[in-house]
Every structure is written in C-alpha cells, then in structure tokens.
Amino acid sequence: MATQAFIGIDVGTSSIKAIVVSAAGAVLSGGEAPLTVSVPEAGWAEQTPEDWWQGTVSAVNAAVAGLDSSVEIKAISLSGQMHSLVALDRERRVIRPAILWNDVRTSEQCAFIRNRVGDHKLRQLCGNPAVEGFTATKLLWMRQHEPANFERLRKFVLAKDYVRFRMTGELATEPSDASGTLLFDIVRGDWSAEMCALLELDSAILPPLVGSSAIAGTVTADGARQLGVAAGTPVAGGGADNACAATGSGVVSPGTLLVTIGTSGAVVAPISRPATDPAMRIHSMAHAAPALWYLMGVVLSAGAALAWWKNSLAGEANGPGFDELVEAASKVPPGSAGLTLLPYLTGERTPHADAVARGVFAGLHAGHSRAHMTRSVLEGVSFALRDSLELMKPLDVSPESAVAVGGGARSGAWLQIMADILGVPLKTVGPGEGAPLGAAMLAAVGAGSFDTVADAGAAWLTTRGQTDPDPGKAAVYAESYERYRSLYVALREWFAAGVGR
C-alpha cells in the first residue's frame, strides 16, 4: 500500500532545504544544498537564481533518494526568502543576479517613494513602510542605474516563485510574498494599480496571483527528470519564509505568536483583519492561510549577534563554544549588572528602520566579565524582539503563548531569558522543521489531504517543551528594557553622523 507524502522546500539565503513528510506528519527524509551570497559592493547582496534551481535539484534528489519505493509524492510546495528581485525578460530569462532582501543599496529609492507616495498613502495602499528590503525599491534602483536591463524587464518574481517556474513552466506569486513588494494591497488581496501608477511602473511586470495552498502548476517532464519526482506532480503556490515558518509551527490563529531566533530574528503575530501601526514601524502582511494576516517585526542581528561575539571577541579558534558561553551567562543575574547591548551590527529594521544604526555596549566597567557581556548580548537581542511585541499590543495582539524556532530556541538558557523579557510562555514544537514543514503543509492542503493548514498543524505538530516566564524577574527587566530603549534615542544623531561606517 502506497505511503502518501509531500515535499516542502525552503529557498533560503544560506541554503536550500527539502523535506519529505508523510500524510501522518512524519519527516521521512531531507536534503540540503549550501548557497553563497555575492557582495559586489559594500551593502549589496546578490545571488544567481540558477544556483537556487541547482540547489533545489540537489536537495530534492537527496531527499527522495533514500525513500522506500512505496512512498508516493502527492504534491510539492515552497517557502522562500522574501523581497528578493528576480528580473525576467520576454523569453523568461534572468536579466541580472537577484537583488536580495538584505541588500541596502536602495536608500535613495526609499526616500523617493516616501516623498512621492507619502506615509499616509503607503499605509492605505500597501500597509508597509518604504524600507530598503522591499522589492519595489529594487525595481526603481534598476530603472535608475541599469536602464538597459530595466528596458528588457517583462516580469519579476520572488525567489521561491522562480524555483516553482523552473519546476512547472508557470509564472506566479502568492499573497504572503506579494505583501513584501510594496506593490500589493493587503486589504484587497490584490496588486495595487495605484501604487504602480505613482511609481510609474508598468503593472504588466507583475506576476499572476494564486493562493498559497492553491495548485499553481504541475512538474514538467524536464523538471521531473532533474528532481527525481513524477511528471505531473502538483505544485502549490507556497509562501514567504516567515509565513511558512509560522504555518509550520502552528501559528495560524490570533492569540498565538512566533518568535524566530535565527541569524536574524522575527516576531510574527497572526491577526484576523488587516491592521497597520500608525507609524509603520512594523510590517503588515497576508498570511499563508486565506482571510488571515500577520504583523511582523524584524531584528537584523539575532543569532548573528551571538556568533559575532563568539567569533570576533571570544576567540574563533581557541575560545569557548556557544554552549559554554551561554552556560556562563546564565549564572549572571538578570540585567547584566547594568551592561546593555544594542545589537544593531548591520543596522536595524524594527522599530527604527535605520540602516546606519550600529551595535553598542553601554555601561561597561571593570567589574564586568565575559559572562556579563555574553548575557548582555542575549538580553539585547531579546529586548530588540520585545520592541516588536510592544508595538503590536495596541493593535489587539495579546499572545497567550509563543512558539520559538531557530537556533536560539535550542538553548534553554536563552529561552528562559527570552520568556522573562517578553513575558509570555515560549513553546518548542515538533517535528521542528519550520518553513519547509509549513511548505509541506501547504502542499498537503493543496492536494486535498487537509481542509486547512490549521487542520494540518493539529495533525502533524506536538509540543516538545515550554519555558514559562519568571515573574520575580519582571521588575528588573522592566528597568533594563527602559535603559535599552533610551540608548538608541541618545545615539541616533551619532549614528546619522556616520560613526561606525
């Protein structure tokens, strides 16, 4: 008897991941292919879309190679890095390397959008601020700096959409990724003709929209030959990486919260109707489930801040490992004896949208040890994530618990610090594959195995652990958090003057 299964693929920045999940929710196998980022100039970040496809071929081949012959792949879906611009010509060929989400070359274009559109219309038309990561800013940069390439442009897609195109021959995107372009109306759930007109962009370059769990095409004969799956296998629309990570963690209803502690960090809160922060310090996006949205705050350096501390200061070759550093930090009292870190090593997204903000240790004195500094890193990242949650609370976000994912979620000590600072219980869930698992859930819904992603989550996910906040630490952290918040305000003009660049 055949075992029905689904493939979930995550087109990340550092790697492509593919997993095979049975209809019962067991992860049967997986594969991964590394990726590299090109930095042609300071602040730029690019990748070659062909590398995404070849990485997908490699990861999927590895995932399906060891499967029992009774396993039948019923459907595929994808998750992917948001915002990254793939420009295609008339023949659907890639015009130039993809400009990635973390590329910050478009500050001038952001200022142009703010001046041309205005914050009120940005909030009204797309619910998000004009920041460097969003796709529309990259299109404007291309028009200004590469007019010959822009003249060839006929369609653009996002990262996962390009991989799906290579699988199926069909071009499309879906609402959760479209939300990160600045060209999508999150309230109407469609492209914004008015935004295109204001930015003088031809709406013909916009890809068709499909639902995240809707079937967007089937694997072609050539795609089947390369991937090692059957021709005609359905491929669902998929979702943006944060939407899929939330889906794969069961965070698909109001009252739940996703806290991601990876290289970067994120707070994702599902909401039942579109809502926008008046100052647009947090993002408003369509979720991967129909009639559901989410608010999102992004911290650019989360695990990256701890990795920087370990490698650059604690000693990359002979210094202590992560576990040893964090274990020592866990013995330091909350508040790090007055030491505060701003973890803005590469600028910051939420709540400041400040590309020139920089990391700072403040309050350092001779009584502080390496353990104090490590704890201040863990607390600083946690405070940065709390910034996002505090901005969401006036928009009716009242989480009863949160699911923590990413490398930082594997550290019990950091989870405790995070729970104490956020003031909510933090759960970890299994199988724990995050975004690719969310993509597999979308494939399962698209194939008709479940009616909704919530049903898939109820069937596939289990709680592995829970870390409750310690109420005895609330007062200490309230004081430390206010100290943290005041530090950026005190240094903002210093950053703007170019210190640290």
Outline of this structure?
With about 500 residues, this protein is an alpha+beta fold. Helices cover about 35% and strands about 20% of the residues. It folds into 3 domains: about 1-80 and about 215-250 and about 430-455, Nucleotidyltransferase, domain 5, CATH 3.30.420.40; about 85-155 and about 175-210, ATPase, nucleotide binding domain (Nucleotidyltransferase, domain 5); about 250-430 and about 470-500, Nucleotidyltransferase, domain 5 (2-Layer Sandwich), CATH 3.30.420.
Structure commentary:
With 501 residues, the chain is α+β, with helices and mostly antiparallel strands. It has three domains: 1-81 and 216-248 and 432-453, Nucleotidyltransferase, domain 5 (2-Layer Sandwich), CATH 3.30.420.40; 83-157 and 175-209, ATPase, nucleotide binding domain (Nucleotidyltransferase, domain 5, 2-Layer Sandwich), CATH 3.30.420; 251-431 and 470-501, Nucleotidyltransferase, domain 5, CATH 3.30.420.40. Helices cover 36% and strands 20% of the residues. It is built from 17 helices and 22 strands. The strands form seven sheets. A seven-stranded mixed beta sheet has the order 16-17-15-14-20-21-22. Strands 3-2-1-5-13 form a five-stranded mixed beta sheet, with helices on both faces. The chain has a two-stranded antiparallel ribbon with strand order 4-7. A hairpin with a 4-residue loop joins strand 2 and strand 3 (27-34). The chain is globular and about 65 Å long. The model has no long low-confidence stretch (mean pLDDT 94).
